Amino acid sequence: MQVKDFYKTLEDLGRMVEERQFSQARTLLLDENPVDIAELFEEMPENTLVLLFRLMPKETASEVFSHLDSDVQQRIVEGVTDKELATILDELFFDDTVDFIEEMPANLVKRVLKNTDPTTRRLINQVLKYPEDSAGSLMTLEFMELKKDETVAQAIVDIRRNSLEKETIETCFVTSATRVLEGTVTLQNILTSRDDTTIQEIVDKDIFSVGTTEDQSVVADLFKKYELLSMPVVDSENRLVGVITIDDVLDVIEEENSEDIYIMGAVTPSEDSYLKSSVFELAKHRILWLLVLMISASITGFIIRRFDEVLSSMVLLAAYIPMLMDTGGNAGSQSATMIIRGLALGEIKTRDAFKIIRKEFAISLLVGSVLAMVNLGKLLLLDRVSLMVAVTICISLFCTVIVAKICGGLLPILAEKCKVDPAIMASPLITTIVDAVSLTIYFVLATAILHIGG
Amino acid sequence: MQVKDFYKTLEDLGRMVEERQFSQARTLLLDENPVDIAELFEEMPENTLVLLFRLMPKETASEVFSHLDSDVQQRIVEGVTDKELATILDELFFDDTVDFIEEMPANLVKRVLKNTDPTTRRLINQVLKYPEDSAGSLMTLEFMELKKDETVAQAIVDIRRNSLEKETIETCFVTSATRVLEGTVTLQNILTSRDDTTIQEIVDKDIFSVGTTEDQSVVADLFKKYELLSMPVVDSENRLVGVITIDDVLDVIEEENSEDIYIMGAVTPSEDSYLKSSVFELAKHRILWLLVLMISASITGFIIRRFDEVLSSMVLLAAYIPMLMDTGGNAGSQSATMIIRGLALGEIKTRDAFKIIRKEFAISLLVGSVLAMVNLGKLLLLDRVSLMVAVTICISLFCTVIVAKICGGLLPILAEKCKVDPAIMASPLITTIVDAVSLTIYFVLATAILHIGG
């Protein structure tokens, strides 16, 4: 849906509700995809929203509901009757129900649970016990389970009878009589086997599974590395309790990427979206890093004060401090960015540390020379400083780039080794370190080459 | 597989090949998952690699082959006979074949094409014509196609006969006699319908499809937004030509994330992994940004030179330039990071510009005050500078944070509006802008408050 259409539809719906043209509003609404309807609902005032929600047939209503943000879900739950609530819940996929309940305040959770059937309620309570970012909280209970001693013919009957409530039937999960996971069998394999074959004969035992408490990032890494579409979740006795499907892993991958990007930008990660977070929350996620970095930047101030004699005898030198600091910071964060991303994608391992140092050193020689040469030309031709000053600045620049690139390449690896998130070593921290080093080089060189101060 | 096991297995395999214990090597190798075998192969010398590859049964060999990096694939193709090559190609999924051929040098492409059957060759040539990052180059040709006038019974026979060669059968694609795409039908729906129902009666016509030349990032966004598992690709006459499955979209999403992260770290994005890229290539991807940023950092130098009288009368002021610059840069890049990520995830739209300015302004008041207060304390108690100098520095800091956060919030939105990748507005560029602004504020305030220079 285009942006223009979006606002036009939103406006039309508002007008129709106001003029009580409900059947027209219903037609217009149902013409949209449920995901788009959810997006429209996010922008509506509460009374219009609840009214329109109640106009939709229950299947669509439930699907739209699963795509809504939790604050809008809450407003709807508060606006509908118990009977309507029970109908929505009945149509929702189990994992969507759990996602929704996890975000509701306690009083609404009570009301929601009251309106689900006892079996579902028991299962919900069980799943809610798993830690938030665990495999258990990610899994669905609507998967196709087959017993290992069934025949293909029986399995097909089973599948035809039950498949509509399942999230996926492409892969079926095979268990023993005591529900211990035996392996998987694809629907392709079932459909192409003879009717009297037992599932046991065609089961693939060489599969991946995870425990309920496994961290979701480990799950996502397995999906990516082994190109999985679904993966069984088992309890401590290897009994099958649920299945994670790739669509839920997609969200985890985006979450992990966001987390890395936020940390690299010196923001404490949070799962809430920017527009929905309060000013206070957003400030809270930023202030700590800013304070830490501001205080560590004092080291650079300390270095400058130590060399204030050098600076007083030649104030001109101060004019090149920002360029040196920025270029060093940028050179370092380029290296850090590539290594952090490589580590996240599994393309780089900590065992590659030596290769990285060698590579970054070579790159920094190349890049540093080019930058120093360009800068030398600019200093002599445009700024018209003396040759010795220009040489001091350019050698400092060259050394800074080398130090920056090696720090940038090495610190993320070091963090990974120490089981710290390598993303922390991104630009802000690298910048602070490189600043201190580059200023020291600059002033020491100035003292030596220009015979001033010290 | 653990890192330790990895090296042990690698070593054992090398030793077994050396001692010509081939059957032992084969057993050890086949005990691993094809993805892990591929990883082992990446680390092996060429002769061991080709030898072990030829020991594997053809199904495993093909699967391992599809997981290898293109340089290793090339070494294998060069090391096997035409007959072996034909066997590998025969077992490969069509989209893996295309991926592999796209990376091969021309002479090998010829040899590869010679060893595929004529139909496959024709299809490969057709798909190779699509632009590299297009929907056409991403799609598979191994999908389940049903005709709209088939009955469910016929469809089930079709599926049982052909499903083994298909990448997915969960969703079947329905076409007319002239191959025009009519819609999709899930296997669940087929299996739960009566045998004499025609496909036409149960087809879902309300689906998404893309043209062959559509950009892969658009495809990935559709998959994410509408939680799709597969999507048909059509030609200009709406005839079905292929299907994109979610596993291939996962790679695109990771690619897009990498691209954003690289641009935010001031590295020109590239698809090659760090370790496989040459020093020269890596330097090439970094030098341009470094040059641009170095030259734009000259503006800050220019500002300092303009105010050199202020600085000569109080060299102490120079000591706080790095802290001001760094804190401004960090404050700005925090905001830019959040907005860039929000835009990439679709949580923030350009229409939210006004909300963002208001929010960033409020945040910057809060964060700026805290930073200024902490800094004031530090300046007076630790650095023991005079009150007026401390006040000058803290007011500059406060103003810098405000400017930085508003620039950081607004520039990515501006870029998006101008159809430029917002990631470009991340820390390095923000830093340069904020540096110039913060230094000007600092010197102007110093002149006014401290009555020096100017």
Automatic annotation (TrEMBL), chains A, B:
Location in or out of the cell: Cell membrane; Membrane
Chief location of this protein within or outside the cell: membrane
UniProt keyword terms in alphabetical order: CBS domain, Cell membrane, Magnesium, Membrane, Metal-binding, Transmembrane, Transmembrane helix, Transport
InterPro entries to which the protein is assigned, alphabetical: CBS_dom, CBS_dom_sf, Mg_transptr_MgtE_intracell_dom, MgtE_N_sf, MgtE_transporter, SLC41_membr_dom, SLC41_membr_dom_sf
Parts of the chain that traverse the membrane: 287-304, 361-381, 387-414, 426-452
Pfam families hit by this protein: CBS, MgtE, MgtE_N
Every CBS domain range: 203-259
Membrane protein topology class: Multi-pass membrane protein
Domain of life the protein comes from: Bacteria
Family: Belongs to the SLC41A transporter family.
Function: Acts as a magnesium transporter.
Record text on subunit structure and interactions: Homodimer.
Protein name: Magnesium transporter MgtE
